[in-house]
Amino acid sequence: MKFSTILTSLLLLFFICPESFAQVSTTPANVSCPEAAQYYSKDSINIVTFGASTVEGVQGLGFQNALKNNFLQCYQNKVVDITNFGIGGQTTSQGLLRIDNAIKDRTGFIVIDMGINDALAIVNGRGSVAETEANMRSLLNSSVAQKLVPIICTLQFVDDRNNPTLVKANATIRALNTVYRRLASEYKIYLADINAAIRRDFSLYQDPYHPNARGYRLISYVIFDTINKAIFDRFLKFVVSQNYPNPASSQTFLDIVLPETDKINIQVFDLMGRLVKTVVNEYLNTGKHTLEINTTTFVPGIYFFKITSDSGQYNTAKKFIVAR
Predict the structure, then answer these.
(1) Residue ranges per structural domain of the chain
(2) Contact 169, 119 (CB under 8 A)
(3) Contact by Cβ (8 Å): 30, 73
(4) Kind plus residue range of the DSSP H or E element containing 197
(5) CA 272, CA 299: separation in Å to the nearest integer?
(6) Residue 283: beta bridge partners?
(7) Which value, in Å, is the radius of gyration of the alpha carbons in the chain?
(8) Considering the domain 239-322 in this protein, what is its CATH number?
(9) Partners of residue 119 on adjacent β-strands
(10) DSSP type of residue 209
(11) How many CA atoms lie within 13 A of 290 on its CB side?
């Protein structure tokens, strides 16, 4: 087929069905789902997003919709509620005046992304890094008092390539990010390191201050990953899988998911209630553990796993079969 004929066919297809081209060029890849999504202990994921213009959204763009879609894709049959409490142009001092209303009666997580306007004000002689730190402490204290799980975001750089004033603003942003990292460590909370993800890639910007669509999607990934880390640390449910393979021959495996560190005792009993094997009797940390059980010495028949914890919080039993 001649090139001119191919080109004519493509142009005809574009005019008849242009949405086909749009879908190919704009549909993002599916998010990679964390293992924590399988073991989340709550029925819903509730997130307050709090800050200035990056949170509010600019020119019809924002990260909340992408963030919600990430959770809906990975956390099946969970209600996902994300509220937007971003107001463009505000500093952390102004944020303090409205934080209580934003978090009243809320549960779950709060994502705080605020401070670029503080940096711009500091460059112009208003405020200080110390004042912003005090304000951020107050925002965090209010969030913790409401029993929310805070996620503090580092600040993306502003595009200073043709603006000496913004060079100074970026120096202040570096200082604020150092403070934010220290606060995350001090409060033992979670840091969404947006600055480390975006770096100085200004192709992710729509203007000197705000992300474009690609930049916002990257932010949604950073926040998604950070909240997943919090879920893994704090909100897993206790799960003991059925062993596999079942029936077992010479070996079988058992998965156990722990919401917190505990001493776990797993024993195997036969139908007469006689102890056959102690699989584990030691402390296991939070998360998923896969245990291998050698069954070569087991007489074919029916057995039971009995799982208990020193804290008394976790107890269950599983039946399985050994066959040759």
Answers:
(1) 34-234, 239-322
(2) yes
(3) yes
(4) helix 194-198
(5) 13
(6) 263
(7) 26
(8) 2.60.40.1930
(9) none
(10) S
(11) 4
